[in-house]
Amino acid sequence: MTKQQLAMELSARRLDRYVDAISEGLGHADRLTPFRAYFTGLLLPGERKSVEPMAARIAPTNVRRTHQSLHHFVSTSSWDDQAVLSRVGQLAIPVLQSREPIQAWIVDDTGIPKKGKHSVGVAHQYCGQLGKQANCQVAVSLSIANAFASLPIAFRLYLSHEWIDDAQKRTACGVPAETAFATKQHISLEQIRRALAAGIPPGVVLADAAYGNDTAFRDELTSLKVPYAVNIQETTTIWRPNEAPLAPPPRQGKRGKVPIRLQRTDAQRPISAHAFAHELSQSAFAEITWREGTKTPLRSRFAAVRIRPAHRDTLRSVPRDHEWLLIEWPVGEKTPTKYWLSTMDESTPLQTLVHTAKLRWRIERDYQELKQELGLGQYEGRGWRGFHHHATLCIAAYGFLLIEQGGFSPSGTRRLQLAQPPLPTDFKPRGSTK
User: Fold this and answer.
1) Has residue 407 got a pLDDT over 60?
2) Percent of the chain predicted with pLDDT > 70
3) pLDDT higher than 50, residue 408
4) Regarding beta strands 228-232 and 204-207, do their DSSP bridges make them parallel or antiparallel, or are they unpaired?
5) pLDDT category of residue 148 using cuts at 50, 70 and 90
6) In this structure, are residues 319 and 245 in contact, taking their beta carbons and an 8 Å threshold?
7) Is residue 179 within 8 Å of residue 186, measured between CB atoms?
8) Residues in Cβ contact with 65 at an 8 Å cutoff, skipping those fewer than 6 apart
9) pLDDT exceeds 70 at position 196
10) What are the structural domain ranges in the chain?
11) CB of 298 within 8 A of CB of 312?
């Protein structure tokens, strides 16, 4: 047996053990065979990871029957996505923790461009993959991470009002009747609550400004006792370190309600994070290197100041608690480029604040691997169940690669080797123009 054959044999054995362990979440034993086949199809090389091309790669002499089996398993079979994802976590999270503790829970959403209008959730909305408004599906995810690796533990499709309010479209795509409209922030918070209830190792919640600008989102994290380090826009208002809103004024006379809301005056008002950053001296900023890049270390200048957020605090009776305002102002730039609010402990060193906040890059790695290597965005079915089943299987495959390869480095390459029968020379998937 050659070294390559031995490597393939060992990889196949490890894959079998992993699939057997994950399959405990499928419910019925008769789902194991199509599960194993679909899972293998996601891991094998190939440009398309939709059902028919995978069937051809797995069983080139029996494409039709394999295609039917895989299609039924992913689009119709009623196994529980969360049960499978929980089993993936049980196997993969210890691999992350064996290197270092979990540091972050990363919140984000990803767009999947679509040409048609009938696939579940497709609408004209912002697509991060394209960087503009486009016809796409959008899903919200939660990943756990440390500097070593990361793992998605939740993934759910976002449905716009257009979909929620259209009973005919919902029925056609099998959207559960109990599904109500939920913002991306609400979906994310529900994922976080479930992770807390499941005992997932804790971490600091990281999110971009689409979540960080939402004061209600931040307040709910605080009520859940979950620390965060979230991006905000430069227009976010804050109080300078020694300032705060004024206490409610005393009641005038003996009648009327006692004032309970905080006050502002022309002389005592909050300012934007941008304006505050320009008030800081140059000595307030320190150069920090947060990780090794693919070519050179990644470094920039940062300042961290304890402040009170000011958003709509005139509707409150007590000021908001102090938290960190973290500012990045690279050398040579005329103005800061990024801002964060963080409820990490007030004794947290600047370097730890920066390292934690910057760990959000891991979510980009998650999406890159899931889309480019494992075909997350290539499911061609239209239904709610199939969309989530396919995503769950992609994440399960991602978990196997994490265990198999010991994590993903920024410049890492896949080392998994599996035997693959050759495709028939006359095979052409439906819809192909070649």
Assistant:
1) no
2) 90
3) no
4) parallel
5) confident
6) yes
7) no
8) 59
9) yes
10) 3-208+364-405, 215-243+268-359
11) no
For 366, the token pair is 């998650």
**Three state DSSP letters for the chain:** CCHHHHHHHHHHHHHHHHHHHHHHHCCCHHHHHHHHHHHHHHHCCCCCCCHHHHHHHHCCCCHHHHHHHHHHHHHCCCCCHHHHHHHHHHHHHHHHHHHCCCCEEEEEEEEEECCCCCCCCCEEEEECCCCEEEEEEEEEEEEEECCCCEEEEEEEECCCHHHHCCHHHHHHCCCCCCCCCCCHHHHHHHHHHHHHHCCCCCCEEEECHHHHCCHHHHHHHHHCCCCEEEEECCCCEEECCCCCCECCCCCCCCCCCCCCCCECCCCCCCEEHHHHHHHCCHHHCEEEEEEECCCCEEEEEEEEEEEEECCCHHHCCCCCCCEEEEEECCCCCCCCCEEEEECCCCCCCHHHHHHHHHCCHHHHHHHHHHHHHCCHHHCCCCCHHHHHHHHHHHHHHHHHHHHHHCCCCCCCCCCCCCCCCCCCCCCCCCCCCC
Length of the chain: 434
The per-residue pLDDT for 409 is: 40
Residue type, 256: G
Q: Is 232 exposed, middle or buried (0-12, 13-18, 19+ CB in 10 A)?
A: buried
